[in-house]
């Protein structure tokens, strides 16, 4: 009931704005002494208002989905700055992987409403036209990033105020760089839908879906640099978003593109499978007595289910 009231309030606001703009457009020529076709403009205004009313008040103009995902990362450079330690060095082309939860952990997280265990994805969208071919949505990707333990990577710069060795073995005791809780992408997407097969807006419809979006990166950093672990503070005490001891911190920006298929298996429910590519620029990620900078290219596969309301 509250949701319906909220939708009608938003719809009324848009309708009111549209009506005022239409009336103003009609009155302007008349004020200038020009002739107008009152019946034609009145019919056009009524049609426009009805279209907006459908777009904001009809059922099925909002949607929500929850998904499970996997990520792959291109090798990237990680720059470490620890002035008090005499460290200013870069680990080059570090390989990294995601950290997926198993099936049981994923299911448990649903019932516990724990949004930080599996690599999961949330989409909340609103159609902006009566044909339901374009929408704006909020996008949350809870991805995870971990440098691969045991690899040997090239190094440049200074360590302990001395020239860094030409290479380093990245392991749990020496260099473990994790955005494990996680590498969170919070984005606003523009979304397009294209009918491919089946009855339109009915069970059995298959659509092509594409997204373009941008937003912020909100990671939780958990790392060990040259034997020193960073201390961010306990989870749940200082949660977010700009303090040096906050569990999640705004540490950069991200852009992404996504394409896939949506299949409606019930009147108000659907499955969706998509492929996403994203670029993220991480700046000021906390490490022991310092920060890390990094740019990340991510490939992500998302399997989700959702409903329209």
Structure explained in plain terms:
- The protein is an alpha+beta fold and 309 residues long.
- The chain folds into two domains: 2-57; 62-308, Porin.
- The protein contains three helices and 18 strands.
- The chain has helices at residues 2-31, 38-57, 103-112; strands at residues 62-73, 76-82, 87-94, 96-97, 120-127, 134-147, 151-159, 162-163, 167-170, 175-197, 206-217, 221-225, 228-229, 240-241, 248-249, 252-266, 269-287, 290-308.
- It has an eight-stranded antiparallel β-barrel with strand order 1-5-6-10-11-16-17-18. A two-stranded parallel sheet has the order 14-15.
- Strand 7 and strand 8 (162-163) form a beta hairpin.
- The longest helix is centred in the N-terminal third of the chain and has 30 residues, at 2-31.
- The radius of gyration is 25 Å and the shape is elongated.
- The protein starts with a helix and ends with a strand.
How are the secondary structure elements laid out?
Elements (H helix, E strand, L loop, with lengths): L1 H30 L6 H20 L4 E12 L2 E7 L4 E8 L1 E2 L5 H10 L7 E8 L6 E14 L3 E9 L2 E2 L3 E4 L4 E23 L8 E12 L3 E5 L2 E2 L10 E2 L6 E2 L2 E15 L2 E19 L2 E19 L1
Helix pairs in contact: 1-2
